[in-house]
Amino acid sequence: CIRDSTLSNILLNHVLPTGPAFAASLSTSYLNTAATNADADNLSMYINVGEDGNVMINGSSMVIVTDIVGTNGVVHVVDTVIDLPTIATFATTNDALSNLVAALQLADTGTPTVPWINTVSDTSAGPFTVFAPTNAAFEALLLELDPSGNTTLGDIDPATVDAVLLMHVANGNVRAEDLPMLMGTVPVLSGETLDLDVNTLTLTDGLMRDIGIIAELTNIQAVNGVVHVVDTVIRPTP
User: Fold this and answer.
1) Measured in whole angstroms, how far is the alpha carbon of residue 175 from the centre of its chain?
2) CA dihedral 34, 37, 38, 39 (to 10 degrees)
3) 128-133 and 225-230: which strand pairing?
4) What is the mean pLDDT of each run of 10 residues along the chain (238 residues)?
5) Are 230 and 216 in contact (CB under 8 A)?
6) Contact predicate 98/57, CB 8 Å
7) Cα–Cα distance between 221 and 231 in angstroms, integer?
8) Is 23 exposed, middle or buried (0-12, 13-18, 19+ CB in 10 A)?
């Protein structure tokens, strides 16, 4: 049985509150919906416009009819209900984060600190703040570990991957505008603390490596936490 409040939030997740968005104006991007998390932060929606022009929302719902214009807005018909997004929704729908998904899956093949895939998929988990490395960040890490280029992600021990992932998750739903409240430090699940420069949106790990938070890819809001995309994989201190 779906609670009335949850059903209402699912319906609001189909509404973009910033005004009419006609099909021609849509591009691959994150937009805010009228749905909210427990802190009243608007949830995000990932719109992916394919090379064929097809529009997919949150990786599961395709737009099949566009630009039905009313006096108070515009309607696009979708083929599936757009459910409330989780952290996993945004990790699995953006191809630029596919290495992160592979790392979560690899860590789960060992004895992970948390069951990663289940946790980020759980609407009742958290909330968590996730610093999500891009595919390029993982590729750079592999070259950092092995300049010969002969090491792949699958070659790394699951326990090591688990330790790395713990460096990318903090408790709480810390949005970009809330970062100054952390007073220059970010405690992560590994037990370590990252230094934070809010002026440059830069994290520094225990190895004195700088990790840039990509400004235009912050506040990707899920129901169980928020994602900020970073340009470098954060490494634990040996």
Assistant:
1) 12
2) -80
3) parallel
4) 80 91 92 96 96 93 94 93 97 96 97 96 96 97 93 95 98 96 95 96 96 97 98 96
5) no
6) no
7) 19
8) middle
Q: Which residues on adjacent β-strands are paired with residue 69?
A: 74
Per this entry, what is the length of the chain?
Answer: 238
Residue type, 135: N
Residues 220 and 228: beta-carbon distance below 8 Å = yes
Distance of CA 9 to the CA centre of its chain: 20
HEC readout, the chain: CCCHHHHHHHHHCCCCCCCCCCHHHCCCEEEEEEEECCCCCEEEEEEEECCCCCEEECCCEEEEEEEEEECCEEEEEECCCCCCCCHHHHHHHCHHHHHHHHHHHHHHCCCCCCCHHHHHHCCCCCCEEEEEECHHHHHHHHHHHCCCCCCCHHHCCHHHHHHHHHCCEEECCCCHHHHHHHCCEEECCCCCEEEEECCCCEEECCCCCEEEECHHHCCEEECCEEEEEECCCCCCCC
Contact by Cβ (8 Å): 111, 105? no
Pairing of strands 210-212, 202-204: antiparallel
